[in-house]
Amino acid sequence: MKLSIKILGAVAVMLLAAACGSSTTPGPEGATASVAPGTPGHFQQVAGDRVYFETDQSTLTPDGRATLDKQVAWIRQYGDRYQTFMIEGHADERGTREYNLALGERRANMVRTYLAAQGVPAAKLRTISYGKERPEVVGSDEGAWSRNRRAVTVLQ
Amino acid sequence: MIRSTMRRRLMAVGVALVAVLVAPLAWAQTRGLQQVTVEGASANPIPIAVTDFVGDATGAQISQVISADLERSGLFRPIDRGAFIERISDPGRTPRFQDWRAVNADALVVGSATQQADGRLRVEFRLWDVAAGAQMTGRAYFTQTANWRRIAHIIADEIFKRITGEDGFFDTRVVYVAETGPGNARVKRLAIMDQDGANHRYLTDGRSLALTPRFSPTLQEIVYLSYAQGTPRVYLMNVDTQRQELLGNFPSMTFAPRFSPDGNRVVMSLATDGNTDIYAMDVRSRSISRLTNHLAIDTSPSYAPDGGRIVFTSDRGGSQQIYVMSAGGGEAQRISFGQGRYSTPVWSPRGDYIAFTKQEGGSFSIGIMRPDGSGERILASSYLDEGPTWAPNGRYLMFFRQAPNAGGRAGSVRLHMVDITGRILRPVATPTDASDPAWSPLIPQ
Fold first, then answer.
1. Which residues in chain A have Cβ-Cβ distances shorter than 8 Å to B315?
2. Distance of alpha carbon B203 from alpha carbon B214, whole angstroms
3. Where does the record place the OmpA-like domain (chain A) (predicted)?
């Protein structure tokens, strides 16, 4: 049950990311055409800009590590164009404001540590926690919460 | 010496107590009115008749504010003015008690508001025990007319104290987070209002997130979290001048601030490299001391009223629980042992309880426990009840309640007030959605 929700969530996220990219145009079969390489939209499409966490956890999931590996590969190729990789840590609404600020910070740092260990220059990595203040999905069920427990890598 | 200092302080805010009014009759033994206690709040609040104060036009408004304050406490039931038999024309005279017994009033409030030649307003009131036929208290105040609401709250506090034996909480203010906009991009700005919702104004402009305001127990100052400079940091603001400043020069996120009981220190969390610990800062010297050093999340610290201990949240045992340590740091004792996760502990200003947010099953509750963890009592519960703040008398709490989000829309978020028995629970009106209330101390007179 939990797994299927997660898979559905991941699919929805990919569609969402595609829909959001301003330079993205629908392809012949309704798939997305490639966006300009090296752009944030390209990063989202090729690598995926976010990883998800289990409830009250900050350890990286296998899916999360796979996404981060793709982020590392992308950053190796295009990272010189950006000053900073800001990692935003978030939590779902099933926690108190203060605890979730700490949890978001812990998640963001887990991503930062992983990226740095894979060779992303530590000096370009920064973190910020939004706790539960900036949900990706406004909802009050596991489907929404699972997408709000996330860390997003933002190119700056 | 003390008197003149007191006088200057009183005059500074424009409210001056000028006289304690002596009863026109010989002081009779008060025997009719039973003492009500907040602990023993019953389904039968005290019927009280609050008459319109005679004289100036503000008199009737003052009575209405007093009446609404007393009603809001849940311990009083103001009697409908339409039922009154005696019309008070001279509040200095002894009322006709049989007329007030006839409308089942246990207590009677009379008073006057009079414009003085110098432009000030003189407000006096008397509280009568109807059954005993005796004056319980009476006082007179001078103030600027614009301050009439404060005088009304001060009088309501006097009445509350005289009858319940507990300090009042009506002459107070509340800072909270006003929320507007869509659920994924909410504007969260600080606002301040009187405890009854009057004199509402915003303290921040909403361009950046402002969260978790906490009142100084001694001054009209708050500490809070702001994203104004990108990294979330703790700021200090005087709510009257709105002067604000960054508190400390930390390398990373500071949050979860709270004042010490003497207002001289602020305890808060600092998150570095994925680890959150608790630090204390001396507000004047800005010197910092580290109080916890643990790989777990240590946050939401709150001082005991004697300043000797700190209660905080930690997940060092695997899930969020409440711990108590010395104010200097060191060994911490876990005090929460019930089912579920506990967070945001707040020590009562009286020291007898610690309020908390509890997460269990699908709901969040506001509860209280003794400082040793015994006597847990849940006061309110819903999809999301969070963030208790104490009234200065330690007998009431405010918190926020968020309804579930639905259809992509954010659920409503509202402030609520509850007493320590959990029997008196009511929403607190705000112009917009509202979260994270912080109750002020009694405003200095």
1. 56, 99
2. 13
3. 40-156
User: Is B445 among the domain residues?
Assistant: no
B404–chain A nearest CA distance, Å: 6
Q: What is the CA radius of gyration of chain A?
A: 15
The torsion angles phi and psi of B401, rounded to 5 degrees, stand at: -125, 120
Nearest chain A CA: its distance from B409 CA (Å): 6
Chain B neighbors of A97, CB-CB under 8 A? 211-212, 386-387, 435-436
Q: Answer yes or no: do B289 and B397 share one domain.
A: yes
Hey, which residues does B309 pair with through a beta bridge?
B326
d(CA B434, CA A54) in angstroms, rounded, equals 29
Query: What's the CA gap between A85 and B210, in Å, rounded?
Result: 24
DSSP three-state, residue B142: strand
Q: Please report the domains of chain A, with CATH numbers, ordered by start residue.
A: 2-155 (3.30.1330.60)
Chain A residues with CB under 8 Å of B386 CB are: 96-97
ipTM: 0.90
Q: With the C-alpha atoms ordered A92, A98, A103, A105, is the resulting torsion angle positive or negative?
A: positive
Select from A93, A103, A136 the Cβ nearest to the Cβ of B297.
A103
Assign A3 to helix, strand or coil: helix
Amino acid identity for residue B167 in this structure: D
Contact B231 A113 (CB under 8 A): no
pLDDT in tens, chain A (156 residues): 343 444 344 334 444 443 343 444 443 444 456 799 999 999 999 999 999 999 999 999 999 999 999 999 999 999 999 999 999 999 999 999 999 999 999 999 999 999 999 999 999 999 999 999 999 999 999 999 999 999 999 999
Answer whether B232 sits within 8 Å of A133, measured CB to CB. no
Which of A93, A102, A135 comes nearest B297 by C-beta?
Answer: A102
